[in-house]
Amino acid sequence: MCTYTCGHPTEYRNKILTKLAGGNAYLGCYILAVTIFSLGIFRDFLYERALRSQPSHPLLLSPISQLLAYALLAAGNTLVLSSMWALGITGTYLGDYFGILMDKMVTGFPFNVSSAPMYYGSTMSFLGTAILFGKPAGVLLTLEVLVVYLVALRFEDPFTAGIYRKREEQRRSAKGKGAHKKEL
To answer: Is the peptide bond before 136 cis (omega within 30 degrees of 0)?
Structure first.
């Protein structure tokens, strides 16, 4: 979680990763994207491995539970993948912290279904995997993941909103100065 709540505001304010990338914000963002993606793959590997060593529960292995598991996996992956598609690489991997802002907020699917489709979709996928393998420990780990995501959103959402609010204020200010110059 500190990756999001600590590292990226630091990038926004101090441009450390951008400086390490030779002053290229896009390169810095792409390096961060590869890092986050790779850590996510490793996290998923550890999660799956942890689940394998845990006992299964028969209620989680019932046909209805298995159907629920596949539905959660399908819906969760749909939310994650469609949000990545809508945002692109720099939108997905915190380009706004590098000063790479989208022209406007994405409001279409999946953002019209969920305010944080990547986090909630990921949580659904974790839960679907836990149920698919019939592992109560996975359900508990999923709850922990959800809590971490909710805490991250409490920091991330206001900070990101502030970045875009600042840009809009700068645009209004620049527009006002342009209008004033035309009058003179």
So the answer is: no
Contacts of residue 163, defined as CB under 8 A and 6 or more positions apart, other chains included, come to 12, 96, 97, 101
57 DSSP 8-state letter: -
Task: Say how far apart CA 38 and CA 43 lie, in whole Å.
Answer: 9
Question: How many domains does one find in the chain?
Answer: 1
The structure's pTM equals 0.83
Model pLDDT for residues 138-159, shown as the tens digit of each residue? 999 999 999 999 999 998 888 8
Domain that holds residue 59: 2-183
29-72 residue pLDDT tens: 999 999 999 999 999 999 999 999 999 999 999 999 999 999 99
Instruction: Count how many Cα atoms sit within 13 Å of the Cα of residue 83 in the half-sphere of its side chain.
Output: 24
DSSP one-letter code for 111: T
How far is 80 from 63, CA to CA, in rounded Å? 26
Characterize 92-131 residue by residue with b for buried, 16 or more Cβ atoms within 10 angstroms of its Cβ, and e for exposed. bbbbbbbebbeeeebeeebbeeeebbbbbbbbbbbbbbbb
Phi-psi region of 100 (alpha: psi -120 to 50; beta: other; left: phi over 0): beta
Distances (CA, A) of 144 to 70, 118, 121, 129, 139: 21, 16, 15, 15, 9
pLDDT class for 8, splitting at 50, 70, 90?
low
Tokens matching residue 100? 């790479």
